[in-house]
Amino acid sequence: MDPVIIVGAGPVGLTLALALARQEVPSVVLDEGPGKDEPRLARTVVLREDTAALMERLTGLPMAQAGCRWAGWRSMRRRQVMRRVSFGATPPDETVAEDVSYKPAAPVHIAQHVLTGALRAALAGESLVRIVVDSRVDGIEQESSGVSAHTRGSKGTWWRGSYLVGCDGPRSTVRKLQDIRFPGRTAVERHAVAALRAELPWPGEALLHRMPPWRTTGPSAGEITARPLPGGAWRLDWLLPPGKDLVTPELLVARVRETLAGWSDGPTPAYELLDTGVHTVHHRLARRWRVGRVFLAGDAAHLLGALGTHGLDEGLRDADNLAWKLALAWHHGPREALLDSYQTERRAVVAARLRAADQALPLLRGGGGLRAYVPGSARGHDALLAEGHLGHGALGAPGAYADSPLAPRHLEGEVSVDTAVGAPVADVRVTAEDGSFVRLRDRLGRGALLVLLIAPGTGVWDRKHWVTAGIMPRLAAAVAALPHPAELLVAETYPGAPAHSVLLIRPDGHLVTALGGVRPADLYAAAEATLGGPVESGAQATAGSR
Q: Which of 309, 302, 313, 317 lies closest to 184, judged by CA?
């Protein structure tokens, strides 16, 4: 069968290629560039717990080693510390009570060229992935049996594939060739950006500083974000007033000097300016993410980023969601409901994120208005902004596919756990089929379903002592009978799960269902729904007929 064609060699395209290779699906990555990335410390990304784990699983490189895992987070308004969260051994601030009710995992801040370099290094040893540089797509044709893409440049030719995924950014050629609309809002926010090396008063902690006292009036009062990078470097972002005023080098240097002086309560300390730029945030959402055998992912499908949200996180989740579905279709023939679910699930999550940001923007960026009449509104606004920056709540938490067309219906044995149906599962320690102890997330992305039994006490015994005891033989038989390969794992505990409950987990780590005990019929029905429903005998592939 023909490989999957991936258009675009940014982080999303490279992630999709690696994820497909892990599931034994070949791909061709068409890169219109030279195959190298310019080092830019002013162009960085923040990875949440789930996307950092995805990158580590695919590249084998600890993200905290390649980037900087935040030691803590603090937000300030004028000179007052409004909120403090520590992620590790950082001692609590003596001037403010630490927020102990809110403990997300520490985000990882990494330069985008470093992340892309780690993906390219991992792909260098992948025989199933071919990266073709200097290849810009200028034509796409598809039919019932596959899809073809034409490239111009030194490697100008026709490429034949089973499917094609456009990961080619905001100005996506793939999206335009498929005549897909991309409505939304332009320049929702603008930020001046500087990467510099300096000693700040809070080593390793990220900071959101609203209305700094040295800029107390007018729209330029704004806010400043500081995020640590390795080697004593920092990325600083200044929210700019609405408009298209030119950000000159002189203006940016002035902002750097007054900000560092303000934080140091004295003269400007020594610093080394490493890189600068202007970051403009747009909010857009493609009308369709699938046209027959052609899909969109990443910035080609959506743009977001206001109020601390990060578009790359969602792009990586696109790749994770799509990879196992394409792999199943590539190996076993297309299931239209399964392939359609990519757009249904991912577009709904990103649309909800955009709505939440658009609803919060007038409140958080407007002058006066409702804010003047709501007691404690400053802390409420800070909490809302923290959601986006820290990966929590409507602005930041990984989306759940609660209304997915793949969700099973009417399972009699279903029980509740702390993870909602359709949400990413918690990363607990499990016993694998070979008897080794691993993290649950280490077993994701292999194309198999995961069946997790919660069995207290099993962690202190060798697997051989209990694998043939109790309910294990019956459960193992039920797992072997599922309509798709599945791996049986065992955990001593899972948040909110009763003993002997059984969790069914998708290859991308989202919970399908939790059952009370071994219920083969319910387990089979849930697995069948997850795969897009039963396959009719003799059904023909129709992906190209749309």
A: 302
The answer to whether 512 and 421 have CB atoms below 8 angstroms apart is yes
Contact 424, 440 (CB under 8 A): no
- Give me the torsion for CA of 506, 510, 514, 520, rounded to 10°: -10
Query: CA-CA distance, 124 to 111, in Å (whole number)?
Result: 20
Q: How far apart are CA 358 and CA 178, in angstroms?
A: 28
Are 424 and 344 in contact by the 8 Å Cβ rule? The answer is no
What is the distance between the alpha carbons of residues 438 and 375, in angstroms, rounded to a whole number?
Answer: 48
Which residues, 6 or more positions from 168, have their beta carbon under 8 angstroms from its beta carbon? Answer: 7, 8, 13, 32, 137, 174, 300
Give the separation between CA 149 and CA 171, rounded to whole angstroms.
17
Q: SS3 of 463, please?
A: helix
| Helix, strand, coil shares, percent, the chain, to 5 | 35, 25, 40
pLDDT in tens, 270-316: 999 999 999 999 999 999 999 999 999 999 999 999 998 888 999 99
Q: For 169, list phi and psi in degrees, rounded to 5.
A: 80, -175
Tokens 């955009």 belong to 354
Q: Which residues contact 80 (CB under 8 A, 6 or more apart)?
A: none
Q: What DSSP element (H or E) covers 390?
A: helix 377-390
Helices (H) and strands (E) in the chain, counts: 13, 26
DSSP state string for 58-105: HH---HHHHSEE-SEEEEEETTEEEEEEE-SSPPPPTTS----S--PP
pLDDT recorded at residue 89:
46
> Is there a contact between 455 and 467 (Cβ–Cβ < 8 Å)?
no
Instruction: Centre a 10 Å sphere on the Cβ of residue 530 and count the other Cβ atoms it contains.
Output: 25
Determine the pLDDT at residue 375: 44
Q: Cα(first)–Cα(last) distance of the chain, in Å? A: 21
Rounded to the nearest 10°, the torsion over CA 276, 51, 426, 513 is: 140
Q: The pTM is what? A: 0.92
Helical (H) or strand (E) element with 25: none
For residues 277 and 257, the answer to whether their CB atoms sit within 8 Å is no
CA 317 to chain centre: 4
Instruction: Name the phi and psi angles at 111, rounded to 5.
Output: -65, 140
Q: To 10 degrees, what angle do helices 49-59 and 311-332 make?
A: 50
Compute the distance between CA of residue 82 and CA of residue 119 in angstroms, rounded to an integer: 38
Which DSSP helix (H) or strand (E) runs through 262?
A: helix 249-264
Contact in structure between 452 and 500 (CB atoms under 8 Å):
no
At 150 the three-state DSSP class reads strand
355-390, pLDDT tens digit by residue?
Answer: 999 999 888 876 544 443 344 566 677 888 888 899
Question: Whole-angstrom Cα distance, residue 320 to residue 167?
Answer: 13
Tokens coding 14: 């490279």
Burial class (CB in 10 A: 0-12, 13-18, 19+), 393: middle
Label residue 97 by pLDDT band (50, 70, 90): very low
The identity of residue 37, as a single letter, is: D
Structure tokens at 388: 């986006």
